[in-house]
Protein 1
Amino acid sequence: MIFINYLLSLKKNVIIILIDGGRVDTAMNSPIFTNLQSKFVFFPQSITYAPYTTGAMHAVLSGCYGNRTGVNSYWNVYKFKNNQFLTLADYLSENNYYTYADGHTKLIIPKFGFNEFNIHDEQEIDLVEWHSKLLEKMNLIYNDGKNFFLYLHYSKIHTGISNEVLKIFNNSSKEYFENKELNFERYSKLFKNAESYLNSIMNKINDLGLLKNSIILILSDHGVSIGEKIGERAYGSFCYDYTLKTFAYVYNADITPQTISSQVRHIDFMPTILEMLDIPINTSFEKLDGKSLMPIINGQNTSEEFAFSETGNPLNENAPPKIPNTKSIRNSKWKLIHNEYDNTKELYDLENDPNEENNLIGKNIEKEKELSKELLKYTNN
């Protein structure tokens, strides 16, 4: 009886599963991902801060944009301001959670607050088998009377794109950009493996009985180009929606499964998880950029937040620049992109032009001014 009462006093566990490089359009056509919607809250329009993993995931796990935390480029991954910003792992560790991260490189997420941070080798292990063992380990910890936070990184789409695209083509290769169907087939094969992985991991979570006592976040960090825009053969160069608009699925047995089609931001998931756990925000640290999504999940009318994104276009260089040189601001209807490297701007009516093919700069001055003013709020930090 004492053991049962102790378990009842615990908070919910937290499991984050990252599908690195997952495209939202592919996920929405996947039976495996579609089946999640019967139990999860599905966000088909979640906007990432950065169209590359390090920038994106530092923002997710800090609830803040990288232009404030210090991680705003590939080069600045070691510059996270941990004396000013807390991570989700920090919060959970302070609340007596055992925190464990598994990824394919130490650079992907902020390491602060983790009890264990493991780097896996895809060539040596089976990710389904390894991550299943980690779930078993976390379940034992929970059954011993301690909550856990487990971060799992599915990295094989990323690795496949690196081997089959980045090492073969460059950002101007005609062979790549003139063969979108072949590019999509290549990507779809990689995504199929991700589907199989996720199906197995969700079955394991269910078999261990972890659904009833866990909050689960399944998300992509960024999409991947299949040749939509010449100059970007994968991700990280531009601020277009095929990389910025991603997916997220949130599970909590206490909330109603639903699809929330309005725009949200990846930085909103950290404060959402903290609110679900009744963990207050520490106001002695820098204010979060993200806002809890619990009001919208609970059906309240809320105003849509602008989403800021930025990255570094390598142009003709082999490496991205040290500071971002292309930035965007958007809501669900309009997007403004400022390409600082050549001081050009792009304006898109996302409702009528979701593929961003018709640049309206100079044709809607009022909207351009409105979004330019909004973008300055982020770029002047």
Note: The longest helix spans residues 180-207.
Protein 2
Amino acid sequence: MNQQQNARLRNAGFATFFFSGICAISAGVVVSLLQEEYGFAYGMTGTLLSLMSVGNLLAGLLIGMLPSVLGMKPSVLLLTIGYAAGYAIMGLTGAEILLALAFFMVGIAKGSVINTCTILVSDNSADRTRGMNLMHSCYACGALLCPFVIAAAAKVSTALAVFLLAALGLVLWLVYAFTPLTGGKAKNAQEKQAIDWSFLRSARFWMLTGLLFFQNAAEQSVNGWMVTYFKGSGIISGALAAYTVTVMWGATLVARLLIAFVFPFKQPRKAMVVMGVSCTIFYILLVQARSQGAAIVLLFAFAFAMAGMNPTAVASAGRMTSVTSMGIMLPVAASGAILMPWVIGVVAEGAGLDAGMMTNIIPCVGLVLFAILVARLPEE
């Protein structure tokens, strides 16, 4: 494949991951807007967010299997229309069963975009670590914009905010529609059998999956619970607490751009150990913080240390990044993001929010252990 084609596929990955950053991160804001609008219970809010995570998980499996039946492009187009369709449904109705379907569809789109972009960028980059960090920087840019975009549109009406997201989802879908995505469809029974499952016997594959499981668990817990924790403990005032999301994504963006352009990792696997240890130290200090200034600085430091972990780990998979392997690695890893925020909630109900937040030290330590295991693997 020529360099022009490589660049085109890579850029399609960057562009769609940027839009996905806006669409995926907005779901948390949209669910609170819908709750205000229709007045459903907190339990329903939790259910909608869980359904989105389930869709995200399922998407990994679907995008791993569908291409051998439908071909790559029809599969991607079928699964990624979920952003446009899901947000459109949210703008049209408050019926709980339809909202449940809508969040599930948004989750499927989110998961499908992650897998598709990972393959587009990883397979078409000369320097994988740089490519993956750049791709995740695009997502962070979208995530940074999201609170401002939604807040501006929601001032007019909730419906305008969700229809705006549906429109962005449609733009994302059109980028894929005009991108030459090839491969996937199996010609005959032999080829269907010929999906390469050898990665399942690879220690590297499972160690990287374990590392990503703990990374997702630790990061998503901070993403999901930090605003509630800061508000509840009175460390950061209510209005300001909402913008801690911006602090996190700002730190994430700065770190990923530095890794991609300024300080590329000479030894990515040793770098992951350093990042893991740093995350753990900053998190322990963060839950001890008692002043607003310290809390914001430590949150920035935690997000900064965590930022390179996911893209660098996926890049370390090297030759194993196929549709099928990513279809198993990313959903298994994403289950950490479903499990840990729930554990914090259970502990917080029984023993208080401080104790709940302390439990997130467990995935931080898991992250360090797996990073050390990965660093000790022989080079491939």
Note: Residues 129 and 316 are 8 Å apart (CA to CA).
